[in-house]
Amino acid sequence: MQWDVVVIGAGAAGLLAASCAASRGQRTLLLEKNRKPGVKILMSGGTRCNLTQATDRRGIVRAFGDQGSFLHSALAALGPNELVELFHAEGVPTKVEATGKIFPASDRALDVQRALLRRLGASGAELALDEGVAALQPTAAGFDLRTSRRTLTAAKVILTTGGQSYPGCGTTGDGYAWARHCGHSIITPRPALVPLCSELDWVRQLQGITVPDVRVRLRAGGNGSRPLLAERRGSFLFTHFGLSGPAVMDVSREVTARLGQESLALVCDFLPEQSEEQVLARLRAAEGKMQVARILADWLPRRLVDALLAVAGVPLERKLAELSRAERQSLLRGLKASDVPLHGSLGFKKAEVTAGGVSPREVDSRTMQSKLVPNLYLAGEILDLDGPIGGYNFQAAFSTGWLAGHRV
Predict the structure, then answer these.
(1) pTM: predicted TM-score of the whole model, two decimal places
(2) Which residue from 8, 271, 279, 349 has the least number of CB within 10 angstroms?
C-alpha cells in the first residue's frame, strides 16, 4: 500500500499535521497505536485541555527560553490567535482564565478532540487506530513501514509520536528509536512539569494544603549563597510525597536534569508580595497580646502556620510581645525562605511533558524536515522542546504539526 504521507502518532501534532497534508491533496494515512486518538488531549488539564496561552507569538517564544528561537517559523504559520480561531471555526468556543490559560468554554477536552477529528475527516486523511508501527526504514523512494497489521510504503513520513510523559497515553518513546535509526541524536529524555518529592515530615503532613501565591527558588543544597538554578512564582500544593502545583512543576525540568549530581532544595517564600521588612512591620503593628499563630492565620492556611512555627521553634501559644529576637528571625526565615530538600520526582508517569528528545539542531525549523534524512519530518513532543505550564507545550505541538503538514 503506497501513500504520499504517513503520519505516525495521532496526538495534537499528528492530528493537525495529517489534516493539513491531506487538505493539500496528499494521500495521507495517520497511524495510531491506541484504540482512540488524542488520548493525552483527553486527559490534559484535568480533562479540560489547556489549548494555549493568552499571549502573542513572541510571548510563546520567550516562554521556551533558549529553545524558543526554533519555534519562530512554526508560530508564524500558526500562532496563539490563529489556533483559537481554528477551534472557533470548528465550533469550539474558548475562554481565558486569570492565569492566561485558554480552555474550551465547555471545560471539556472531548470537544477539542472531536474538533480535530472533524477537521481530519473533512481533509480526506485516513485514520488507522490500534495499529502500531514496528519498523521504519528509509529507502531511495521514501520509506518502508511495517505495522502490527501490514507493510506500507510512503514518499514522506511525519513523526509525531510524542515523548515519554504519561506513558499510559501510549507515549512510551517509540519514536526515539526510529529517529536514532535514521541517524538523529537523542538528547536524554527526562520528566518535566512533574511533581517533586521531599522526605521532610512537616511537608508531607501538610498534604492537601494549597497556597495560591508562592515564590520558589531552586538552589544546589538550598544554601542561599549558592547559584540560583531556577525561580518561579505561582500556586503551590503540599502532597503526601512532597510538592506540586504550577510553581513547583515549572522548575522541575531543572531538578530532573541534576538529580544524582548534586543535592537540591527549593527555597520557598510563602509571602512573595511582601519584603522581609514589610513582614516585620506588619508583625510590629499587630496587637502584642495576640498569639503569633492567630496573627499569621490571617495571612496563610492555619496548618501551614502551625508547621512553620514548629520548625522555627516557636510554641503555638506564644504571644507576639513574647517573641525573642532569635524566634522572630527564625520565624521570618520560615515565612520567606523555608528550605525544602528534594530527593526526586514522580517520574514520567506523572510528568506533563518530556524534556529532551530529537535535537532541534538536526531539524529545519522552517519546514520541520530532518536535515539528515530527506522527506522525514518531526513535530511535537518528540523534539527537545519543553515550555512552562500554561498551554505553551500544546501550542508548540499544534504549531510544529501544522507547519510540517503544510510543508510535507
Answers:
(1) 0.94
(2) 349
